[in-house]
Design goal:
about 40% helix; Amidase signature (AS) enzymes; alpha/beta; 15 helices; 3 domains; 11-stranded mixed β-sheet
Length: about 475
C-alpha cells in the first residue's frame, strides 16, 4: 500500500526528532522562497521552541499531541499572537496580532510546530495570489504559473516541501482551487465545524478554516485538532470535536455518487478527461461505488449568488479600516472624510476597491431589493437543491476547477475571467457543505495537476475525507 507523505513524516519525527526536520524545512525556505514567495513571515525562534518541546516529550517517553510534531504554516489572515497579521495588504502591513486564533491555539496545544505565515491575495480577494500587496507567489511545479488563490502561499509551501501542512481559509474555494493547482489535498469543513475566531473574514457567512496539505490523512488530522465548539464563535455552538483519523480507511461499502452535468460545462477537455478517469477508477476499485450523472440546474447561478453576497459582506466588514482605529495611519487633515478616503485609496489594491464598491452598490437603499435580497433568496433555493441532491446521492463528484493553473499575468486585466475560476467551488460555500479536493493526475498537454472535487451533505465531513483518501489510492 502507498504510504502517504504525512505517515512518513510522523515516522521521521519518532525516529529522528522534530528539531532536525524543522531545520531541514528552514533551510529549504532560505534556499528557494526568495523566488517562490510562499511566506510573508517565517518564525524560526518560535518554531525551534515548539520543536524542542516535542523532542523533550519524545525523550522522556511522554505521549505526543494529535499533530505529533508536524510542521505547520498558517495563512496570514489568521491571527498568531505577537506576529504580523497583514492579509497581504498595505493597510495592515505593520499590524501585530494581540492574540491567537482559536485554531492556532489548538494546533500548538496538540504539538503542532508553527513555522510561519503564508502569502495570500489581499484580504483574500483573488484566485491566483497575484493580488497580494507584499509578495507575488509562484507555483513551485512551474514558476511561470500561478499557485491559485487566495491561499496561494499555503499551496506553494506544501508543494515546495517547506512544511508538512498548512492551516488556510476557504471563502469560495480559496483552499480547494490552489490545492488542485499544485497537486495537493484541500478540505473545507461544514460551516460551523471550526471556530472563525481570530481570522479576518472576507465574508463571514461563507468563510471556514481548513487544511491545505499533501494528503487526506493530514487534512483529517488538522480538522480533528481544530474542530469543536468555541464560545468565541456562535456558529460552532453544539459542535463536537471530530475524530476522523482512525475512521479514514473505513469508507462505507455502498456509496451512491452523483456527477452533475453542469460541472463539465465549459470545462477544459483535458481536465474533464482526467476527472472522469479518476471517478471511473473509484468505481472499479470499490464494488459498492455506483456513479450516476444528473442535473443540478441552480449551479449556474452559484457564482453570481456568491459574488453578490460575498461582496456585500466584504464591503461591510471593510468599513473599520479607516486609519483611525485600524490600518495605515492617516495624515492630519481638516476634513475627516478626505483623510479617511486618502488612507483607503493608498492602502487598498484595485481588487479590494472593486469589491468594496460593488458590495456597497448592491446593498444601497436604491438597489438592495433588486440585487442583494434576490441573491439571498437564490441562495436559499440553491441550498434546497443541494439538500435534495444529497438525499439521492451520498457524494457529489466533479472537477475542482475547469482549468489548470494559468500563466502569471494571464488573467490580470480581466476580473471576470479570474472570477470564473471559482465557478465549481463556490456552490459548497453557498450551501455551507463540506468539500475537498485531491489530485486527479497531470493534464496531458499542460503537464500540470488537475483536481477532483468531492462534496457531501451538511455535517458529513467524514465521508468526504474517506472518499478523498480512497481517491488518492486509485
Amino acid at each position: 500500500m502507498h504510504e502517504s507523505r504525512t505517515a512518513k513524516a510522523l515516522g521521521e519525527i519518532k525516529s529522528k526528532g522534530a528539531s532536525a526536520r524543522l531545520e531541514h524545512f528552514l533551510t529549504q525556505i532560505e534556499k528557494r522562497d526568495h523566488s517562490l514567495g510562499a511566506f510573508i513571515d517565517v518564525f524560526p525562534e518560535m518554531a525551534r521552541e515548539h520543536a524542542a518541546r516535542v523532542d523533550s516529550k519524545l525523550k522522556s517517553g511522554k505521549p505526543l499531541g494529535a499533530l505529533g510534531g508536524l510542521v505547520i504554516a498558517i495563512k496570514n489572515s489568521v491571527a498568531i499572537k505577537g506576529h504580523r497579521l497583514t492579509c497581504g495588504s498595505k493597510m495592515l502591513e505593520h499590524y501585530v496580532a494581540p492574540y491567537s486564533a482559536t485554531a492556532v491555539e489548538r494546533i500548538i496545544a496538540e504539538d503542532g510546530i508553527i513555522i510561519g505565515s503564508t502569502n495570500l491575495d489581499e484580504f483574500s480577494c483573488g484566485s491566483d495570489c497575484s493580488k497580494s500587496a507584499l509578495r507575488v507567489t509562484h507555483n513551485p511545479l512551474d514558476e511561470t504559473r500561478v499557485p491559485g488563490g487566495s491561499s496561494g502561499g499555503s499551496a506553494a509551501a506544501v508543494a515546495a516541501g517547506f512544511c508538512d501542512l498548512t492551516l488556510s481559509e476557504d471563502t469560495g474555494g480559496s483552499i480547494r482551487e490552489p490545492a488542485a493547482f499544485v497537486g495537493a489535498a484541500g478540505f473545507k469543513p461544514t460551516y460551523g465545524t471550526v471556530s472563525r475566531y481570530g481570522i479576518i473574514d472576507l465574508a463571514m457567512s461563507f468563510d471556514q478554516l481548513g487544511p491545505l496539505a499533501p494528503d487526506a490523512l493530514s487534512c483529517a488530522m488538522l480538522v480533528d485538532t481544530i474542530s469543536g465548539e468555541d464560545w468565541h464563535d456562535a456558529t460552532t455552538k453544539g459542535t463536537k470535536r471530530t475524530e476522523f483519523v482512525h475512521k479514514l480507511d473505513s469508507m462505507p461499502r455502498e456509496i451512491r455518487a452523483g456527477v452533475p452535468k453542469e460541472f463539465f460545462s465549459g470545462c477544459d477537455e483535458g481536465v474533464a478527461d482526467l476527472v472522469w478517469k479518476k471517478i471511473k477508477a473509484l468505481e472499479s476499485a470499490h464494488d459498492g461505488f455506483s456513479i450516476e450523472e444528473f442535473s443540478l440546474p441552480s449551479l449556474k447561478y452559484s457564482l453570481p449568488i456568491y459574488f453578490l453576497l460575498a461582496f456585500s459582506e466584504f464591503s461591510s466588514a471593510m468599513q473599520k479600516y479607516d486609519g483611525l482605529k485600524f490600518g495605515m495611519k492617516w495624515e492630519e487633515s481638516k476634513d475627516l472624510a478626505e483623510a479617511v478616503s486618502t488612507v483607503r485609496d493608498r492602502a487598498f489594491g484595485p481588487e479590494v476597491k472593486r469589491r468594496i464598491l460593488l458590495g456597497s452598490y448592491v446593498t444601497s437603499k436604491e438597489f438592495r431589493d433588486a440585487w442583494y435580497t434576490k441573491a439571498l433568496h437564490a441562495r436559499s433555493v440553491l441550498k434546497k437543491e443541494f439538500a435534495k441532491a444529497f438525499a439521492n446521492y451520498d457524494v457529489i463528484l466533479g472537477p475542482t476547477a475547469p482549468m489548470v493553473a494559468w500563466k502569471m499575468g494571464e488573467r490580470q486585466q480581466d476580473p471576470i475571467q479570474m472570477y470564473l475560476a471559482d465557478v465549481l467551488t463556490t456552490p459548497a460555500n453557498c450551501a455551507g457543505t463540506p468539500a475537498g479536493s485531491v489530485s486527479a493526475g497531470l493534464h496531458a498537454k499542460e503537464k500540470m495537476p488537475v483536481g477532483l472535487q468531492i462534496s457531501t451533505g451538511w455535517g458529513n465531513d467524514l465521508l468526504a475525507l474517506q472518499v478523498m483518501a480512497a481517491a488518492e489510492k486509485v
